[in-house]
Amino acid sequence: MTADGCCTALIRKLEHFKELSDQDKELLAKSVARSVEFAAGSDIIKQGDQPDYVHLLVQGWAGRYKLLPEGGRNIMAYLIPGDLCDVNVALLEEMDHSIGALSACNVALIPLAKIRNVMVENRTLAQALWWGTLVDEAVLREWLVTLGSRPAQQRVGHLICEMLIRTEAVGLARGNSFDLPLTQQELADTMGMSLVHMNRTLRGLRSRELITTNGHTVTVENPRALMNFAAFDPLYLHQQAHKFRSSLQEVL
Amino acid sequence: MTADGCCTALIRKLEHFKELSDQDKELLAKSVARSVEFAAGSDIIKQGDQPDYVHLLVQGWAGRYKLLPEGGRNIMAYLIPGDLCDVNVALLEEMDHSIGALSACNVALIPLAKIRNVMVENRTLAQALWWGTLVDEAVLREWLVTLGSRPAQQRVGHLICEMLIRTEAVGLARGNSFDLPLTQQELADTMGMSLVHMNRTLRGLRSRELITTNGHTVTVENPRALMNFAAFDPLYLHQQAHKFRSSLQEVL
DNA sequence: CGCTTAGTTGACTCTTCTCAAAAGCAGTGG
DNA sequence: CCACTGCTTTTGAGAAGAGTCAACTAAGCG
After folding, report:
1. Mean pLDDT for each consecutive 10-residue tract of chain B (252 residues)?
2. B219, B216, B226, B223: which is closest to B180 by C-alpha?
3. What is the least distance, in Å, from the CA of A69 to any CA of chain B?
4. What angle do CA A191, B68, A178 make, to 5 degrees?
5. Chain B residues with CB-CB distance to A68 below 8 A
6. B139-251: which CATH architecture?
7. Which residues of B touch A236 (CB under 8 A)?
8. Where in chain A is the domain with CATH 1.10.10.10?
């Protein structure tokens, strides 16, 4: 993986907020020190760590999670290529949660000093990176609403809408399909429900013909129908409509 | 309310992260332009707004919320005196949620320019303010875990633990009691449960003798017992133990 | 082919929701 | 001072949603 390749997803994501010049892109690409592979199931960052690098996910899916005293685990966020794991945790004494690779992952390491440098030197990039963390926070709030007040099928439908748009935004969707490299157990840990119930919920969504699945590929035949069903409003992802040049554009 | 008085709670909160010099405190106090009253039930910031000022809550409780398409509302965060409502939303095009006064509130307005100035001029304050927003985010994650994977009584117990520590941190707790100026409906909207179930859940906590209530005052006779029951670990609030000089210190 | 992991299904239990109504409490006007 | 009103809290009862236990099927792999 070249340094350039490392950043394509990130750049593509950031451009949904603001156009970047070639110089901006180069500055980003040059700040990557090296990249590391993580096997599915391994931890990228552990609770209690104080990382020396900012971790940029290049390939694969990862998740923020906490282990529960009763033994299960709760996944609080999904990270996909282009997502930064810990832009700002450097300030805190230690991570209050872990980040685990949900599939095989490739992670680029960016030295803290370089990121700080970017934030100071380049106003556009600084704003774009802050935008990214604010969107992460907005997603967190939306998940809270989802968990608190939507029934199971709509909850999962909402998640699928979100991930379709997010994968689309970094060029990982093909039409209305995207790869969801998660087990039903992991989905259940995310949505706060049991494995059995998740299985039945997915069956429900399939039988309503809102989604189809083929292995770990999810297809949303009619995005508008699913968004409507799940009361999904993409506002919280703060993608600027005028920048959004994907096939989903007409739906949004 | 004098400018000085406006900031005592904020200063007190920030000092759980890092000691502030008199100069730091003065700089904060001087940045307040004026203060505004909000009646219970009114909106401090509405979804879609792009605020000109950063709002600092001085008195009362407020909450971040979203209205649901089905008609209810979901409260995603509580704001208490010393909390900033929107340090960093200035970057986004518009608020993706509203902030409503849950009780009568007094809010200090800080011009964006002044905050930016503080962030640039004063490294200690800048770090302390960032710490505040990171803690807000950590709280959000913890709520997500709570909603996703704890049964009702532990969920509410967890919330009460958190609010006891947070009110304590800004000098609003008396011993193990604090004022919770919310209706059971509002608590239910927060914890993603029905009003009836919230009522029964509170009764359960009372009958377990984990809390007592008197009007809107909640008393936690034995914080350790409640924390244990609710699997509450205060790590996520990122309060530095060495700074924590309250009566709860021995418990933490 | 046997082993392991992931997905599926059934039956039963328990939690939580909804509908409905009563009781407590504060403010208001007669 | 009292009846009236609106809001909040409390309680009951039945229905729906979600969890648990357990077994079975499907798919990948050495």
Report:
1. 77 94 94 94 92 93 95 96 88 88 96 89 92 94 96 98 97 95 98 98 97 95 96 92 53 56
2. B216
3. 7
4. 45
5. 145, 149, 231
6. Orthogonal Bundle (1.10)
7. 96
8. 139-251
